[in-house]
Amino acid sequence: MESLLLIDDEPGICKTIQNILQNDSLNVLTATTAGEGLQLLRDETPHVVLLDIRLGKQSGLDMFHHIHEIDPKVLVIFITGHGTTDTAIEAMKLGAFDYLVKPLDFDQLQQVVEQALKIGRLMHATASIDSVDPADDASDRLVGNGPSMQSICKQIGRIAPQDVNVLILGESGTGKELVARAVYQHSRRNQSPFLAINCAAIPENLLESELFGHEKGAFTGAERMRVGKFEQCHHGTLFLDEVGDMPLATQAKILRLLQDGQFQRVGGNETLSVNVRVIAATNQDLERMIDAGRFRRDLYYRLRGVTLHLPALRERLDDIPELAHYFLFRFNRQLGTAVQSISQDALERLQSYRWPGNIRELQSVIRESLIVSTGPTLLPEFLSIDMHSEAPADHETAQPIAHVSQDNWQLLGDFVERTLREHKTDAYRQSLLRFDRLIVSQAMSLSSGQQSRASELLGLSRPTLRAKIRAMVSEDHGKESS
Are 350 and 383 in contact (CB under 8 A)? Predict the structure, then answer.
């Protein structure tokens, strides 16, 4: 029988997880202290460890090293109720198998544990060879504990220590430079320079000089030799923002540098060598630009050693309250205002907005709202946003939701069984979509079409419920049009 070790200082959590995971083929061992956990690790040699980040006064991150001294092959899954983006990144840098945030999604927990056990079996098999603390308001902080942000942080933790180029894709205002800085800060080059250059903000005739430098007299106005960003970043990291706006001629020079680490200053003959990690970002579709002849395919593949896709703010609604409070405390300190909290109505209004400008727009709205607000609480009337793009009101969505589903629970069971028998690779996702449609429809029916009441019945926020309804209605319209 395989064994899993859970180390968490909350006995209730230990009992709950043990009841969920324990079965005929898996023995779940529990420990509430670091010392007890290490002793069980020595005695029982489990393949997987579930480790709380905070164990009283001891850090699970520190304990990770002791665990790997005892068994370097054991797979560690961190769990915590105090998740921050930095701890997620640090956990993945240490070599954690995964990182889960409380309250735990038990379906996700079981999936991660099953995957870890499978990999653990392969690792131990014998190979045969035939012959947001509010006070933490730093401007370069990644904020958000939703699934999308946690996924990004995990990717950063895996990517940062690897000395490969990174391509960050995402809409304008999603925080691409912030992610680039996080990759740098958690990399092995973090003691060397980090420089950023916006390729769209510099005139074409000056961009090459900014990047590669120039010799004295190279062009009119070049009165002295200039060292470019690549030379300044030797052994460091250069962030090329809006790389899709880079001229083709400059792209060719960047390609050569990425291929062999060599370049020449503008107007110079001397070949120089540098060792620079490049992180590039763009909000444009580079593959379409390649097809249109506006971006080099070979450069594209050089830049995308690893690709990070940043979600739009409308795709991470659950992070908006944390982001809003983060900006509230940050701008309170900068502006000298004294707003202490954000009302629930204001938060719901923020979550109902579509945010075409993403996080940059949210930041601007919170700053302006603090300036014009009165009293200790930020109310909806102080939010300077155009709500034309917010979700439909309750009465507007009540009619469409009435015909969303004709299924019943028996049909859902039949659908799940049929999907599994057909060996479809997305059976879990398709079943969840059917379940969402059915339970939301039933809740809306029981609440007479009132979203506020339905959200209470389901235990969902109104913005989350609205997003689900919008997705259902959109899917129905798509079916009708096809």
Answer: yes
* Tens-digit pLDDT profile for residues 410-435: 677 777 777 777 776 667 777 777 78
The answer to whether residues 167 and 269 belong to one domain is yes
Angle (deg, nearest 10), helices 344-352 and 462-481: 20
Domain of 15 in residue numbering reads as: 2-124
The yes-or-no verdict on residue 330 having pLDDT over 80 is yes
Buried b or exposed e, range 395-410, using 16+ CB within 10 angstroms: eebbebbeebbeeeee
Q: Which ranges of 373-461 would DSSP assign to H, the alpha helix? A: 394-402, 409-421, 427-446, 451-458
Domain closes at, from 101, 124, 147:
124
Region 260-274 average pLDDT: 89
For the whole prediction, is pTM greater than 0.90?
Answer: no
Residue 474's H or E segment, with its range, is helix 462-481
Q: Do residues 227 and 273 both lie within one domain?
A: yes
Q: Radius of gyration (Cα) for the chain, nearest Å? A: 26
Peptide bond into 311 cis (omega under 30): no
Number of domains into which the chain is organized: 4
Cα–Cα distance, 417 to 431 (Å, whole number):
10
From the DSSP assignment, how many helices (H) and strands (E) are in the chain?
20, 18
Last residue of a domain, one of 255, 284, 309: 309
Residues forming beta bridges with residue 377, ordered by sequence position: 341
Coil, helix or strand for 226?
strand
Q: Give me the residue label for tokens 């996924």.
A: 151
Query: Is there a single domain that holds both residue 264 and residue 236?
Result: yes
Contact 381, 332 (CB under 8 A): no
CATH label of the domain that carries residue 70: 3.40.50.2300
- Asked if 220 and 361 sit in the same domain, the reply is no
